[in-house]
């Protein structure tokens, strides 16, 4: 059953553009896809929610993982990835990532990205959690994402690829047969386009990033409100593994009531020898895992939370005073500046840290070519679930995944274009009812959703906490639906209400999947089911949205994803 009848309540589009492909998002995944498609002769349009360089990529501090060092191999990188993924990685997806990754990084360098190099001109490599070798390439010390973003933005502008900035994507447009025909979007502010419009294209690439803003405290920028996952769900696409939200272990603690984007203290700081300690200076990760502070992120986050519970503390500390001022200033200038801006000097004192929502390992389900279950709709980067990350992303695999799978999407679309299989499609008309069929949430509901998710579906989860979270989310939806049913009123269409409605959509799916998975695996930690249960749960939870906005969830029979079953026109 398709959910394509669901649309965000919005004015009818007042303007339109035509293209072969529209890319939604301007991080490493989106811009790489756009550059490759444009190079293949495709008329490409990039739509992004803020400015071109304002996505999650620019905030990536640590780097990009690939087997580039002497003695390192794709097989070793694959082994580390599979271990971190806790039995749920798709092995073929991981093999693609690690074997195609090194050349993809080299092509990124050819595009103009400059990585830090040593005296002999070779790329400097560091370690992060879960890696048994130094294989993380970095730039500007701890400004890797900013450098990658700079290079890709410059390349996009140099090619003259049309871009629509400050645009919130609303819904997928489809033709009468349910195939992709473009997107509707709302441009915020003045410019060539303003208000609600449409980009008509037979192929759409979602590269919208994460959904960290569903929690009160996150490392994600304010634009990360799950818009891509919500759009895909409304379009009838399947999402998977949404319960696996990675909480970064070391986020600068700004107080128990801190909300919104929090400063990240990169895992690379631990990779260079920083220690996690409690208030008494005790290294509590030693002995918990062979890699101690460099264990996979889920293990470190749990170790911090356990110590906090034991001691009744609000945070732990990251001690890197032994680095000295020179190393801090050269290797981690961004983190040093962020800490000092908040009154903490890492050169002379330990940094207070606590876990915060960081990365969605799940997302819109795709095949090895980035194709979703909706014909013509592709996804890559954090919005996608390629199967690479399993139950827990290995550090610095995210930039690489965006890079590798964006290239694969572009190759697939270019192949279809060469076969004359990319035809313009006329969007199936959707009536604009005077009274909306589905409610929009008021902006203030955003904070209620974030509190519900932080309290009930954060690092520590249980049947009781998830049941309460599901009930509270259901009440938020019911109140809006009740008001609509009683007097035909809903919140006014606008960026705040659309974002809040998207957040509720992804929150409901996340909680439903977390309730269903009665085990602890990777970054999904159930206090009432403390053990990993491979016999019952080494499989994926796949969710779709019904036309009445109820959820249809099922569990796969094996750890392998079923095919996305593209239509004959897509093959």
UniProtKB/TrEMBL annotation:
Originating organism: Streptomyces alboniger
EC top class, as a word: oxidoreductase
Record's function text: Catalyzes the oxidation of L-aspartate to iminoaspartate, the first step in the de novo biosynthesis of NAD(+).
Principal cellular location given in the protein's record: cytoplasm
NCBIfam families: nadB, PRK07804.1
GO molecular function, one term: L-aspartate oxidase activity
Gene Ontology CC annotation, any one: cytoplasm
Protein name, entry field: L-aspartate oxidase
């Amino acid at each position: 059953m398709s959910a394509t009848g669901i649309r965000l309540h919005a004015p009818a589009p007042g303007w339109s553009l035509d293209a072969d492909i529209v890319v939604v998002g301007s991080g490493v995944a989106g811009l790489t896809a756009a550059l490759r498609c444009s190079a293949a002769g495709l008329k490409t349009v990039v739509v992004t929610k803020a400015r071109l360089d304002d996505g999650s990529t620019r905030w990536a501090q640590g780097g990009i993982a690939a087997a580039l060092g002497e003695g390192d191999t794709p097989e070793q990188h694959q082994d580390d990835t599979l271990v971190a993924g806790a039995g749920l990685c798709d092995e073929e997806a991981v093999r693609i990532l690690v074997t195609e990754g090194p050349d993809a990084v080299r092509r990124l360098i050819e595009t103009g990205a400059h990585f830090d190099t040593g005296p002999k001109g070779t790329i400097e490599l560091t370690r992060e959690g879960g890696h048994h070798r130094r294989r993380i390439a970095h730039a500007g010390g701890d400004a890797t994402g900013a450098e990658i973003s700079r290079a890709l933005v410059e390349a996009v502008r140099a090619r003259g690829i049309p871009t629509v900035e400050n645009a919130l994507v609303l819904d997928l447009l489809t033709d009468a047969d349910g195939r992709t025909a473009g997107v509707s979007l709302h441009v915020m502010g003045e410019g060539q386009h303003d208000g609600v419009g449409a980009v008509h294209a037979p192929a759409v690439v979602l590269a919208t990033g994460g959904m960290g803003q569903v929690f009160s405290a996150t490392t994600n920028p304010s634009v990360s409100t799950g818009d891509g996952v919500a759009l895909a769900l409304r379009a009838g696409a399947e999402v998977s593994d949404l319960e696996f939200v990675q909480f970064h272990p070391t986020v600068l603690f700004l107080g128990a009531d801190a909300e919104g984007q929090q400063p990240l203290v990169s895992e690379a700081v631990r990779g260079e020898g920083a220690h996690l300690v409690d208030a008494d200076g005790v290294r509590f990760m030693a002995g918990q895992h062979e890699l101690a502070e460099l264990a996979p992120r889920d293990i470190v986050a749990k170790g911090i939370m356990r110590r906090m519970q034991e001691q009744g503390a609000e945070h732990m500390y990251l001690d890197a005073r032994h680095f000295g001022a020179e190393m801090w200033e050269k290797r981690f200038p961004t983190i040093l500046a962020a800490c000092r801006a908040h009154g903490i000097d890492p050169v002379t004192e330990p940094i207070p840290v606590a876990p915060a929502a960081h990365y969605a390992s799940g997302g819109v389900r795709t095949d090895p070519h980035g194709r979703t279950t909706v014909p013509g709709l592709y996804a890559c980067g954090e919005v996608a679930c390629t199967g690479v990350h399993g139950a827990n992303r290995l550090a610095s695999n995210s930039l690489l995944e965006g890079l590798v799978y964006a290239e694969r999407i572009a190759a697939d679309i270019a192949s279809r274009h060469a076969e004359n299989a990319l035809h313009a499609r006329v969007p199936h008309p959707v009536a604009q009812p005077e009274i909306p069929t589905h409610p929009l949430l008021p902006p203030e509901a955003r904070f209620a959703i974030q509190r519900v998710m932080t309290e009930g579906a954060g690092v520590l989860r249980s049947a009781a906490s998830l049941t309460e979270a599901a009930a509270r989310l259901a009440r938020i939806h019911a109140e809006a639906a009740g008001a609509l049913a009683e007097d035909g009123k809903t919140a006014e269409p606008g960026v705040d209400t659309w974002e809040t409605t998207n957040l509720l959509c992804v929150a409901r799916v996340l909680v439903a999947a977390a309730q269903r998975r009665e085990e602890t695996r990777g970054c999904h930690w159930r206090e009432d089911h403390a053990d990993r249960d491979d016999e019952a749960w080494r499989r994926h939870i796949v969710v779709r949205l019904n036309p009445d906005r109820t959820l249809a969830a099922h569990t796969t029979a094996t750890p392998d994803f079923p095919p996305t079953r593209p239509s004959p026109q897509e093959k």
